[in-house]
Amino acid sequence: MTNGHPFGPYDFEPNDTDSAYPEQGSWPTDPAADELDFRLDDFEPADTASERAEEAFWPGDLTVLARHHTTPYGSHSFVVAHDRSITWGIPGDPQVVAIVVARDLSLNTFTFESAYHATVAFAQNWLIERGCPPEQITQVDGNFMKPADDLTVRIEQQIRESGARYEILASHTSDFDPCETWTLTRDSSSDQAPIRVFLEEGDVDAHTYTMREGAFADEDTARNWLEDRSNPLPQPAYRDEAAALRAGVALTRSAGVSALPKTGLDTHLARSAEAARQPSPRRPM
């Protein structure tokens, strides 16, 4: 825990009655009002893997960060959530879960797929790769920590839009001091420094976080840096950085409007559900 808040960089804080903005960082007045509903009351699992995956979650453990239900028929649900139960499990395990529920409306069955990530941006990328319209999953609930600067916004957008560019090799989440997460990846688009570290650091007092990208020649060098930290993170040179930062500013300052282009996938998903891979369900105890 960090200062009594167990959710790492994505924690929201209790109401501060002395704050000039009391709506910022407030707890919901009714905890059940934001409880996740997978909308599966009239559906049966399409296979054993989906049944086990759905049973692995207790909705009361999940704090929703972003969600999208397709329209007009509601064939798909996409969710990014913080799994509070992980804080009592194996130290360092990723706490952000991405969930896709696909419903066959003609058979009243569903498939259920999920994956854990250290950061919201990678969870959003995972959902976008599975058909979620980017603009519908980009905006994170206003109660949670905000990006501290434009570079953070730019790097998160880069991750969301990266497709299958980054292969995740390892990750670590710290609830304690320091309040941080890191994701170790292999960048398929880079030859000279293919190993990338995405380091996210939270500032509980300021209620903000930063994201930085480090570039390394090999995995051993990256892991040594994560262990040592005596030198600055070797950040890559960003192409078209000024334009990217302007896009990031527009994204953070927009009132619920994403800078990402609309894809129109809702209608497509309502007509034909894409077959989803079914991973082995996991829930650290």
Plain-language structure description:
The protein contains seven helices and ten strands. It has a five-stranded mixed sheet. A five-stranded mixed sheet has the order 6-10-9-8-7. It has 285 residues and is α+β, with helices and mostly antiparallel strands. The longest helix has 13 residues, at 241-253. 22% of the residues lie in helices and 26% in strands. It has helices spanning 48-55, 120-129, 134-137, 150-160, 219-228, 241-253, 265-271; strands at residues 44-45, 62-69, 76-83, 96-104, 109-117, 146-147, 166-174, 180-187, 195-203, 208-216.
Question: Short description, anyone?
Answer:
The protein has 285 residues and is an alpha+beta fold. The chain has helices at 48-55, 120-129, 134-137, 150-160, 219-228, 241-253, 265-271; strands spanning 44-45, 62-69, 76-83, 96-104, 109-117, 146-147, 166-174, 180-187, 195-203, 208-216. The longest helix has 13 residues, at 241-253.
